[in-house]
Every structure is written in C-alpha cells, then in structure tokens.
UniProtKB/TrEMBL annotation:
Name under which the protein is recorded: Aldo/keto reductase
Annotated ranges, domain NADP-dependent oxidoreductase: 13-318
UniProt KW Amino-acid biosynthesis keyword: no
Superkingdom of origin: Bacteria
Amino acid sequence: MLKRKLGLFEINPLGLGCMGMSEFYGSVDDERSERVLHRALELSVDHFDTADMYGYGHNETLLGRVLNASGRRNCVVIATKCGIVRDRTDPTRRGIDNSPAYIRESCARSTDRLKTHIDLFYLHRITGYGERIEESMSAIADLLAAGAIAGVGLSEANAATIGRAHRELLRLSHGRHGLSAVQTQYSLMSRDIERNGVLAICRELGIAVVAYSPIGRGLLGGALRSTDDLDEKDFRRTLPRFSKEAIVANSRFATSLDNVAQRLGLSASELAIAWVLHQGQNVLAIPGTTQLKNLERNVAARDIALTADTLQTLDALVQQTPTQGARYPTEVMSAYGLNR
Ligand code: ATR
C-alpha cells in the first residue's frame, strides 16, 4: 500500500500501538514485546505509538531501548504523548495538565526515557473544551523551534480545539508548522468523528487522523465474548462498551463481521483494520498487539483493497447492529470535552 503523510513524514498507513505492552490489557511480558517490536521492524512498520503514562514511563523506555538498538531508529517515527497525570497509589485516578511548564518538563522526561528525539508529540487529552489551547501551543512552538520535537498532534480533541490549535501553531511558527496529526478512537464501532466535525476539519486542514483502537480494543477480533474473557485488572472492565450486557451484544456484531470477512477470505480483525484505512488518504491506523501472530495479521491488512460493495455491506451491518455502550464513561467524555 502507498505511504501516507503524517506531517513531515511519509510512512506506511499501518503503525503499531504499544500501550498494551506495558499495562491496561492484562499481562505484560517484556521479552515477548521485544520480539513483536523486532518483527514489526522486519515487516516495515515505521510508526510506533507510545505515551508517557503507559506503565508510568515503562512503555517509552522499552520502545526506546529496542528501536535505538535496532539500527533502524532513523527509519521510523516515534510518537509519544503528555498531559495525563496519574497517581501511582491509585492507577484509576487521572488529571490533565496542559500547562506550558508541564509540557516542557514532560518533553524532557520522555526524551530522557526514549533516549532519542521525539518525532511526533501529542497532547494526550485536552483540558475542558480547549479554552487554554493557545497557551499550550506556545510551549509546543518553543519545543519545535528548539528541535526537541519534529511534529505536533492532539489526541481526542474536539473540532473547535483542533482548529484553534492548528491556527495558533501556524501563527507562532510563521507558517512553518500546523498540527501534523489528530489521534482518536476510530473503527466500525466508534464512528463519532464522522458526525462531530473532527474528520471534516482534519481533511480540510490537511491533518492526519491516526486511528487508535481500530479493532475496537479487541472486540472486533472476535475472541472477546464476555467480561470473563478479561483479566481481573483489565482496564476495559471500566468501559461501558465492555459491561456484562454490552459485551455480549457487541460480540454479535463481531460475529457478523467475521461472517463477512470469511466470505472474503479474511479475518474479522483484518477487515476491521482495512475498513479504517479506506476512510480517507489522511487516515492511518495503529492497532495494538502484544502477539506476533496478531501483528502479522494486522500488518497484512495494509494491502487489502475493499470494494464499494463490501464497504456498503459493512455500513449496513453497523446500522443493523448499533454498538452498545459508550467508548468511555459519560463523566470521562465530559472531562475530555468530547460530549458537545
Ligand atoms: P488499542 O488501540 O487500544 O490497542 P485495538 O488496536 O483496537 O486497541 O485492539 C487491541 C486489542 O486487540 C488487544 O487486546 C490485542 O490483544 P493481543 O495483544 O493479545 O494481540 C487485540 N488484538 C490485536 N490484534 C488482534 C487480532 N489480529 N485478532 C484479535 N485480537 C487482536
């Protein structure tokens, strides 16, 4: 598949989400993760997504160690994020800090853990409705000017904030930099960006949409049928979409998707990822996996061409079996300014 633009970079449309290598989705095993990262490089994956908060820095350290030792560091894009403040004594507690001082300090800490430069630096979540985004962009513009980061993104921002951040960055950098990317949950099960203006403004402003959870946090892979399939500490247990009732209903959609996939000689996860990559030339996907077999399947999805008929069939399927449960609890959506 042809490469796509991610700001200054031209890369493969399918990257690797590394979050699960540190926490959130059950057990973690560094050796296994390292094998997955090495295999990803062999398969020409050139976009690795991490964040300072994944495993309280563990994820950045792991990724930096493997990529720096691979000899391929300069052939890949490393994207990291800052702004979610966690409490080690209570992993479920979250705050958001987008202040200039916090952004500057976070960038320095991430660079230190990665032991390499940052290609793409996201604000992980945005405070309120983005009222103070200009202040954050001033710190970001300084980091760009100093060469500490090569590109800028927002993760889970609303359309108005995206527009304001992009314009402010262009103003501060005298037209040299706007936003390179907006990262957001996007899959057959999470299509809100098609309705809330995020997809439209990214297209209009030439910003890449980086789709996380393209497999619906595993639901579209077909193996999750009940909360019993999740580890006791699995973070998905806190999400409405994975409640006892919702997961059963949502797994019915996964079964229908699998039926369509089988008729095409594909797996459900391949079809789910390929669908995301068919949503526009500015859309990239970063499915997450900790398993070699799943990585190989996911990477295969970048070469799948879907017909207009198949895309219509999938739209009809979504209409017939609407997703049950929101992607985050209501209070979290409000805290992130995503409920307008
Ligand atoms: P996220 O972006 O949040 O990581 P995702 O990419 O939609 O979400 O899905 C990740 C989940 O799907 C993980 O639980 C992953 O499990 P493994 O680490 O065991 O692979 C699972 N997953 C990834 N690829 C898969 C595939 N090809 N088939 C089934 N499940 C898969």
